[in-house]
Amino acid sequence: MTIVDDARPAEAQAASQVRARVHVPLKTPLGQWLKADVFSFRGLADDGEHLAIGLGDYANSAEPLVRVHSECLTGDVLGSARCDCGPQLQEALCEIEAAGGVLLYLRQEGRGIGLYNKIDTYVLQDKGLDTYEANEHLDLKADSRDYQVAADMLTALGITRIRLLTNNPEKVAQLRRCGIEVVERVSTGVFVTPYNRHYLETKARKTNHAIDVPQHAG
Fold first, then answer.
1. Which candidate in 67, 82, 111, 145 is catalytic?
2. Considering the entire predicted model, what is its pTM?
3. Which residues have CB under 8 Å from 45's CB, separation 6+?
4. The domain 19-108+145-207: what is its CATH number?
């Protein structure tokens, strides 16, 4: 056995150990049937069961459109009107399929605090706290998400240059720090309702999301 002294930074060594574990085709009924390639991974630093979903002609795109979507069971699955996660996910699937790209579905429920804690914050939000204040009231970070795992997944798929579908400047900054070249930030839609207006306005005000919330919900 030969032992090689790897002088690269620990982060780079860890990323190089990430591999696509399984690649399977999937069809999703979204307006029409969309063909998707779903990748699972081994070697991710946080051991999370994160997924990459290739859509359209992603394999031949020099700058694939990428969405890093944090899991939101209440919005994605149950259609909760407290947030805009469900509509953003549906939009991303359609936009990425048309452009060719990848959706990264990260298991970072509640900005990284977990499902049960997120449900607890709902109680506090109903008492007047915003989403960030509610997290902090429970002695949790306002946003504890780390996008290194997203960068590692992209690198494992041979993708290092992307167009990023997001309104969140922190995603752009973190991915760039992790070695992903974000050549363009593509805005998502603004899916405002009477129930999530304060949520969207808070994201724009507190974390500089590129959201222009209209005065009246559509």
1. 145
2. 0.85
3. 14, 148, 149, 152
4. 3.40.50.10990
